[in-house]
Amino acid sequence: MRFAFVTKLVLMAVCVGLAVNAAQAARWVGSGDRGKWSDAQNWSGGVLPANDGTEEIVFGGTRNTAVHLDAAWDVKSVMFDSSAGAFTFEGQVLTVQGAGDVESKTINNRSMNKQTFVSTIKLGQNQGWYNAKASGRLIFNGGIETNGCEFRVNSEGVVHINGPITGDGVIKRNGAGTLVLASVGSDFSGYAPGAYNGTLVFTQDVPLDAKGPFGRGNAWNPVFLGASGNSNASLLAGGAVTMERTVLINPTGRGSATVGGKTQGESTFSGDIILGQDGQPAAAVSLTAAKNGIVTFA
Question: How far is Cα of residue 183 from the mean position of the Cα atoms in its chain?
Fold first, then answer.
């Protein structure tokens, strides 16, 4: 374990998607044959959404909440309004174009219920995913194809990514909620995830020299915490796992950073901890362990 300072790292990714023009909106009403996406009776006015990346899709209510993507579809965004029940999506690939803005709400859960994607999600452009309610959940059990894009989880609730992440790109965490990276079988070659604010949880070993949900494996691809201003970010082990990557604690003004474990398992941080960059020290750093848990910094 080494504590050090570093000069500023500049990370870049290339994301090429469709040029999406003015969006149209399509609302799920669930009046058709079970939950088939391609059944026009499941959509407001009996009209299918366009399959060209221009439609803003809105889900609400509790009719036909088990949605079957019987064909691959290309949309601009997906929103669950405050009336939405707990939806589940399975079947073909759902491409979500977004607006090219990581602060956007491309996949947006405004409901108190969990929304689960078993279908693979493919990113078209840089985008943001959002939970409006602290009790809300976004769960991705299918694959995520990053397509060289950045997606930022800006949420108050919890986002679970359980399926494999593939491709190049950037994953970042912001807002007061939690992002749990439990991805199995990932072949993600992008930059390591980081958290400007909120909590980033890893539930598998993160080796130094292999790809996985934490991106390409090398010493110069650190997991970062914090940002300028009053940032409060945490990196927590969610089990008996090891983090071999470097952890970079950014200067955060009056904010703080927390590193440690959140379960009773014995977790280990064996990579370097870098405190600050460009000659600016990190703000307050706390090391934490759950009750009856053990965290080793080796």
Answer: 11
Distance between CA 269 and CA 242 in Å, rounded? 6
Q: Residue 219 pLDDT more than 70?
A: no
State the pTM of this model: 0.91
Both structure tokens of 113: 């219920």
Q: Are 158 and 130 in contact (CB under 8 A)?
A: no
CA distance 168 to 208: 17
What H or E segment, with its residue span, contains residue 28? strand 24-28
Q: What is the pLDDT of residue 7?
A: 39
**CA–CA separation, 205 vs 175, rounded Å?**
25
> Contact, 275 vs 285, CB < 8 A?
yes
CA distance 57 to 254: 40
DSSP code per residue over 244-273 = -S-EEE---TT-EEEEEESSSSEEEE-S-E
Q: 3-6 and 144-145 as β-strands: parallel, antiparallel, unpaired?
A: unpaired
Residue 5 has pLDDT above 50, yes or no: no
